[in-house]
Amino acid sequence: MHITQLNQECLLHLFSFLDKNSRKNLAKTCHRLLEAFQDPLLWSLLNFHSPVELKKDNFLLGPALKHLSICWYSERVKVCNIEDWMKNSFQKDFCSRHENTVSDFLLDVCNRCPNLLSLTLSGCGHVTDDCILQLLKNCPNLKSLKLENCVRITDHTLEAVTLHGASLRTLHVDFCRNVTRAGLERVREKCPSVMLRAERSANMIPDSKPEKKLMPEKASRKLVQL
């Protein structure tokens, strides 16, 4: 039996074992496999490991998407997660090349994937509160929101969760240093059913020079010695 003689269910099962590039390459071989590639049921789960992958045409977005993950683990993440006011000209130029890549993609998800159940973002330093707000509004079934090392996320996102996250059950804001203890407590108060985790977030002092932090401490020690 030739692969093209398999029914749609079998073809989708076969495609499910392939990565996005392999699916695209297989779909180029004939119309029957292209039809399977374009089946929305194939695209209920999407994982990306770089913003560059978001610009490729080897996947489809649609109402069938339930689980989305964009996790960028790279040395470049450190550049993008420096506070904007601390970036030098080289760092600003580097970030400007892909500043809106993830945000624009997520806005597209807002418009085309209303049934999204889980979203994980890691190292996405350019994602803003407004972007998360739109997701919460347009994806009312979202149950899990995991944000890690997203420097622009603030208490505005936490407030959006209390207003529009009726279905949310899991919220992680690990290493999101610009959320505050007060914002976290507000979520705990207004959304007691949400499992909240904020490892190394609230009360972190971002990008402070060690000598500036230690100077008062050293001074106090000298006074004690006197």
Automatic annotation (TrEMBL):
Comp. bias (Basic and acidic residues): 208-220
Domain F-box: 9-46
InterPro entries with a match to the protein in the record: F-box-like_dom_sf, F-box_dom, F-box_LRR-repeat, Leu-rich_rpt_Cys-con_subtyp, LRR_dom_sf
Alphabetic keyword roster: Ubl conjugation pathway
Coiled coil (residue ranges): none
GO CC, any one term: cytoplasm
Origin superkingdom: Eukaryota
Region feature (Disordered): 205-226
Listed Pfam families: F-box-like
Record-given protein name: FXL22 protein
